[in-house]
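Propose amino acids for all 379 sites.
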């Protein structure tokens, strides 16, 4: 795949679309795409779609997107999540234009985009990000997928699900996420722990009831949420985040302060459930349950955490290779903007003789979603 002049026109190699597709992308980092045959044209990024102005701009771009000269779509692709602005507008366009609508699972789109950029139609891709509707009632975001020809995929490995008390409110306040993980791991919500987090007993009581009663506490598998929780535990994340990925960025910054030497090892459990490998991070939170001790030296623990995630990713990929043999794997998702994790994992995989496929034109975050939707829906 190469980038041509006059806008972002991607020439597909090894991939050919049987249908003309107008793809709506996602909400946080939105781009619209028009794909046909061996070309995909991407609009500039218009996200996040959080304000009326941003939504209006997106609708103008999507509704009047020129796409490829002389071509018009015969189907529209949207994210599987029912409440995204981009998905709602895609449904509106499909109805107005009398076109079929194709819903593409978020991480499948990530994986398909990564493979297409490397001229590959099928294979293993590890997708790690903060959120994506899985279609099974849970939030995905640490997914090893086998992308198959014909626009299908198989989920092979993920992180064990944990409750997210308050849903989106927990994303904005990482301490909520940490409380959910403590509850799942059987860690007592002592006054000392709550005081260190700046959480009142009343707040913790409400969040605990949400988790135990499964009320407004959706289950999440997402790697991004794991980073949030660890960042809060180490005292790095602010009480209320002000930008996307802020806790993870601060955690990575802490790890960059490591001067070398022996680092700690953080444990995790591995189990298989109905041909799906699960990485359970409860042992890590039990080991880090002494907040005062951890916060005395967050740098060494931040390094240990990055090493643990790289090891867990390796375990997931090894398992995937048993199900779908090969010697290459793609990496996609906003978590792979983290250079420490990405470099460690790539080095680990390459030392094992693997070929690592990474994004060449689109970003690993949600800016690649429209490309992946076009590839999947056009198959």
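Proposal:
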């Amino acid at each position: 795949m190469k980038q041509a002049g006059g806008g972002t026109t991607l020439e597909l190699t090894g991939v050919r679309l049987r249908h003309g597709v107008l793809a709506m992308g996602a909400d946080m980092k939105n781009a619209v795409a028009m794909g046909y045959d061996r070309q995909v044209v991407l609009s500039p990024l218009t996200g996040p779609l959080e304000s009326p102005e941003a939504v209006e701009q997106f609708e103008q771009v999507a509704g009047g997107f020129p796409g490829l000269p002389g071509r018009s779509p015969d189907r529209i692709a949207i994210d599987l999540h029912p409440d995204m602005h981009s998905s709602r507008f895609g449904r509106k366009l499909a109805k107005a234009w009398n076109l079929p609508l194709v819903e593409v699972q978020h991480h499948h789109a990530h994986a398909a985009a990564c493979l297409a950029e490397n001229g590959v139609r099928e294979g293993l891709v590890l997708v790690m990000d903060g959120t994506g509707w899985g279609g099974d009632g849970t939030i995905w975001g640490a997914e090893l997928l086998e992308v198959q020809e014909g626009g299908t995929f198989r989920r092979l490995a993920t992180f064990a699900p944990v409750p997210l008390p308050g849903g989106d409110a927990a994303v904005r306040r990482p301490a909520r996420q940490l409380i959910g993980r403590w509850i799942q791991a059987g860690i007592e919500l002592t006054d000392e722990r709550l005081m260190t987090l700046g959480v009142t007993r009343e707040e913790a009581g409400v969040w605990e009831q949400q988790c135990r009663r499964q009320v407004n506490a959706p289950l999440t598998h997402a790697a991004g949420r794991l980073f949030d929780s660890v960042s809060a535990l180490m005292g790095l994340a602010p009480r209320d985040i002000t930008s996307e990925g802020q806790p993870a960025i601060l955690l990575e910054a802490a790890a960059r302060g490591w001067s070398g030497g022996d680092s700690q090892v953080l444990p995790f459990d591995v189990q298989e459930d109905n041909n799906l490998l699960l990485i359970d991070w409860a042992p890590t939170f039990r080991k880090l349950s002494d907040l005062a001790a951890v916060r005395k030296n967050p740098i060494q623990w931040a390094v240990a955490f990055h090493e643990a995630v790289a090891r867990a990713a390796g375990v997931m990929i090894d398992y995937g290779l048993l199900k779908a043999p090969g010697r290459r794997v793609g990496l996609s998702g906003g978590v792979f903007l983290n250079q420490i994790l990405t470099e460690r994992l790539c080095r680990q995989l390459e030392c094992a003789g693997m070929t690592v496929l990474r994004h060449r034109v689109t970003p690993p975050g949600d800016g690649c979603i429209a490309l992946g939707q076009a590839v999947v829906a056009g198959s």
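The radius of gyration is 21 Å. The chain has two domains: 2-118+360-377, 162-357.
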